[in-house]
């Protein structure tokens, strides 16, 4: 178990890091660089962030439902620990040796993406920071969130999944940029 204050501080720091990287690296790229694909069928930078936006859109209403439960935190035991399903999901999702097909609901568009995708992502980071503020008074372990039929995460799982998932695909966008730079060298 992790004290909730430490858990939320970690998520906040990661969100700030992600936003800083988008601002200082990806917003500095021109449209051709943002749309460049290493190979046909592989995602470009904009598609990586479109996927993240779609993922935030998927989780946001579920998280809002969890926040609406308003299960107050118990000051004597105010911590985060993953739920059974959250632990399993995170084990497979955050382990680079496992790869899964992207579900259609979070598959990025093939074309017609603009740098607005990056601005939408930054707005979602601001909204996520506000969500963390709201979650500070809620029991992250006792507040359950239905994810899929028969699968429930706790609220802390949802928050961790979305922030850590962002890091995975920002890393993917970095690798796309690195491949472009190597090609151009």
Summarize the helices and strands and which ones pair or pack.
Layout: E1 2-3, H1 4-26, H2 31-35, H3 45-69, E2 79-80, H4 84-93, H5 116-135, E3 144-148, E4 151-154, H6 155-184
Antiparallel strand pairs: 1-2, 3-4
What does this protein look like?
- This protein has 185 residues and is mainly alpha-helical.
- The protein has a single domain, classed as Up-down Bundle (Four Helix Bundle (Hemerythrin (Met), subunit A)).
- 61% of the residues lie in helices and 7% in strands.
- The protein is built from 6 helices and 4 strands.
- The strands form 2 sheets. A two-stranded antiparallel sheet has the order 1-2. Strands 3-4 form a two-stranded antiparallel ribbon.
- A hairpin with a 2-residue loop joins β3 and β4 (151-154).
- It starts with a strand and ends with a helix.
Describe the structure concisely for a colleague.
The protein is mainly alpha-helical and about 180 residues long.
Main features:
about 180 residues, mainly alpha, elongated, 6 helices, Four Helix Bundle (Hemerythrin (Met), subunit A), two-stranded antiparallel sheet
- How would a crystallographer describe the biggest sheet? 2 strands, antiparallel
Q: Mean pLDDT across all residues, rounded? A: 92
Q: Give the beta-strand count.
A: 4
Helix content: 55-70%
Which blocks of ≥5 consecutive residues have pLDDT under 50? none
Structural class of the secondary elements? Answer: mainly alpha
Mind telling me the CATH superfamily name? dinb family like domain
Number of helices: 6
Beta-strand percentage range: 5-15%
Question: How many structural domains does the protein architecture include?
Answer: 1
Order of helices and strands: EHHHEHHEEH
Distance between the termini: 47 Å
- From the alpha carbons, calculate the radius of gyration and give it in angstroms: 17 Å
Biggest sheet, spatial arrangement of strands:
1-2
CATH class: Mainly Alpha
Overall outline: elongated
> What is the CATH architecture annotation?
Up-down Bundle
């Amino acid at each position: 178990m992790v004290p909730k204050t430490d858990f939320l501080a970690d998520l906040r720091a990661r969100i700030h890091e992600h936003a800083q990287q988008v601002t200082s690296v990806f917003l500095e790229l021109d449209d051709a660089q943002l749309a460049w694909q290493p190979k046909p069928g592989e995602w470009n930078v904009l598609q990586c962030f479109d996927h993240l936006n779609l993922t935030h859109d998927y989780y946001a209403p579920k998280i809002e439902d969890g926040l609406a439960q308003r299960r107050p935190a118990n000051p004597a035991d105010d911590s985060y620990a993953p739920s059974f399903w959250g632990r399993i999901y995170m084990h497979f999702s955050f382990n680079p040796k496992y790869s899964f097909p992207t579900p259609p609901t979070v598959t990025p568009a093939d074309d017609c993406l603009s740098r607005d995708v990056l601005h939408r992502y930054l707005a979602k980071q601001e909204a996520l920071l506000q969500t963390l503020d709201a979650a500070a008074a809620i029991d992250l372990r006792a507040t359950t969130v239905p994810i899929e039929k028969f699968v429930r995460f706790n609220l802390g799982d949802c928050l961790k999944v979305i922030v850590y998932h962002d890091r995975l695909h920002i890393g993917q966008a970095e690798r796309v940029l690195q491949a472009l730079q190597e090609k151009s060298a």
